[in-house]
Amino acid sequence: QVQLVESGGGLVQAGGSLRLSCAASGRTFSNYAVGWFRQAPGKERDFVAAISRYLGRTYYADSVKGRFTISRDNAKNTVYLQTNSLKPEDTAGYYCAAVLDVPSYIKSYYIRASSYDYWGQGTQVTVSS
């Protein structure tokens, strides 16, 4: 089992920044890929970013590319999502998720919510215009 706890959300003005954290406990966190997803009220849960255990490969949704950065610190069992130049349309609950990583996975695997076995409870990001 892996337990995930998100933090760092809040209310920010458009153009501002937040750093979201996903702290993990349980199994060896460095063996896992971690993804961030977001869900606004009445909408589906959408992929935001993911980071593999292999060479730190990262993947981003087109809507956040160039504004968000995902990173991991295995010594702290934590994955971060740095969000910059925030827009009102970034408003959503942000969730991190983890799955045991294998070398054969490709991007299409990491961007699917159904690929992940463990989920956190989420942290709310609200961007005001």
Summarize the structure.
The chain has one helix and eleven strands. The chain has 129 residues and is mostly beta strands.
SSE blueprint and pairings:
Blueprint: E1 2-7, E2 10-13, E3 18-26, E4 32-39, E5 46-51, E6 58-60, E7 68-73, E8 78-83, E9 92-100, H1 107-110, E10 118-119, E11 123-128
Parallel strand pairs: 2-11
Antiparallel strand pairs: 1-3, 3-8, 4-5, 4-9, 5-6, 7-8, 9-10, 9-11
What does this structure look like?
The protein is 3% helix and 50% strand. It contains one helix and eleven strands, in the order E-E-E-E-E-E-E-E-E-H-E-E. The strands form two sheets. Strands 2, 4, 5, 6, 9, 10 and 11 form a seven-stranded mixed β-sheet that branches. The chain is globular, with a radius of gyration of 14 Å. The model has no long low-confidence stretch (mean pLDDT 95).
Observed structural traits:
single chain; 129 residues; mainly beta; 11 strands
H-E string:
EEEEEEEEEHEE
Number of beta strands = 11
Rough outline: globular
Summed up, the helix count is 1
Question: If you average the pLDDT, what whole number results?
Answer: 95
**End-to-end span in angstroms?**
40 Å
Radius of gyration: 14 Å
Poorly predicted residue ranges: none
Q: Approximately what portion of the residues adopt beta-strand conformation? A: over 45%
Question: How helix-rich are the residues, as a percent range?
Answer: under 10%
Estimated structural class: mainly beta
- Main beta sheet: strand number and arrangement? 7 strands, mixed
